[in-house]
């Protein structure tokens, strides 16, 4: 009832003011609506970053600095990458200059924590999922990023860095959700992302959403494959 009463009161005041303006055009500057659009009305309001929240809807991955637990990197499914240096008290967006906003995964190089890998394209399969444009690399702790390829993967599931050699990186590429083909499978680089070679593939409709490395033997890898295709009328998953 309170909402209805306020709405009726607002409409009544608005119509009253509009009638007054019609009879006296000079009164427009004194209306109820126009003063709300003046800059001084909002002069005490300031914008502030609230971190990876609200518009993203989903936090897709977290990577913590191996030597400084106060430094985290947060990947938002539809909101880029954020960094905190104070254990989450505040966050700074660090991926806004990239050409993709949807993120699938993060990875920090344990040998050099200033090297950050970002896989773009949310690694979920719902209808509202956004695609990315490959894999990015930062060598300065997230101050700048460079696209390192795999742009046709559209969705990156996971990134694994060889702890014995930072130039060796494995990527689980999911591939396009709404189409066949693309870059989907397990990809490997031995030169820090300059070139990539596919080392495992299944089919044009099957991608890989995860890859894991044995902690005791970096030559032992485990990968998870997933056949999926989304259409307007159905979703094919694992048939």
Structural summary, described in words:
This protein is mostly beta strands and 239 residues long. 9% of the residues lie in helices and 34% in strands. The chain is built from one helix and 15 strands. The strands form four sheets. The protein has a four-stranded antiparallel sheet, with no helix packed on it. A four-stranded antiparallel sheet has the order 5-6-7-8, with no helix packed on it. Strand 7 and strand 8 (146-147) form a beta hairpin. It is globular and about 60 Å long. The termini are far apart. Mean pLDDT is 85; it is low at 1-11 and 27-31.
Short overview:
This protein is mainly beta.
Topology:
Elements: H1 2-23, E1 59-64, E2 72-76, E3 80-84, E4 92-93, E5 103-108, E6 116-120, E7 135-138, E8 146-147, E9 156-161, E10 169-173, E11 185-189, E12 197-200, E13 206-214, E14 217-230, E15 235-237
Antiparallel strand pairs: 1-2, 2-3, 3-4, 5-6, 6-7, 7-8, 9-10, 10-11, 11-12, 13-14, 14-15
């Amino acid at each position: 009832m309170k909402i209805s009463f306020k709405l009726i009161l607002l409409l009544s005041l608005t119509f009253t003011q509009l009638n007054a303006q019609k009879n006296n055009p000079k009164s427009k500057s004194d209306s109820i609506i126009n003063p709300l659009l003046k800059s001084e009305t909002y002069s005490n309001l300031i914008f502030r970053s609230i971190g990876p929240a609200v518009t993203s809807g989903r936090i897709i991955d977290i990577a913590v600095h191996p030597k400084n637990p106060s430094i985290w990197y947060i990947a938002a499914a539809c909101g880029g990458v954020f960094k905190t240096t104070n254990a989450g008290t505040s966050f700074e967006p660090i991926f806004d200059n990239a050409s993709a906003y949807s993120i699938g995964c993060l990875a920090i190089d344990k040998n050099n924590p200033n090297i950050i890998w970002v896989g773009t394209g949310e690694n979920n399969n719902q209808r509202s999922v956004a695609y990315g444009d490959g894999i990015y690399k930062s060598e300065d702790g997230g101050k700048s990023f460079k696209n390192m390829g795999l742009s046709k993967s559209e969705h990156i599931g996971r990134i694994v860095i060889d702890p014995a050699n930072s130039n060796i990186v494995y990527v689980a590429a999911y591939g396009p959700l709404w189409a066949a083909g693309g870059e989907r499978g397990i990809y490997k680089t031995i030169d820090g992302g300059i070139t990539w070679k596919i080392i495992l593939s299944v089919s044009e409709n099957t991608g890989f959403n995860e890859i894991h490395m044995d902690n005791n033997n970096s030559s032992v890898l485990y990968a998870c494959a997933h056949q999926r295709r989304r259409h307007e009328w159905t979703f094919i998953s694992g048939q």
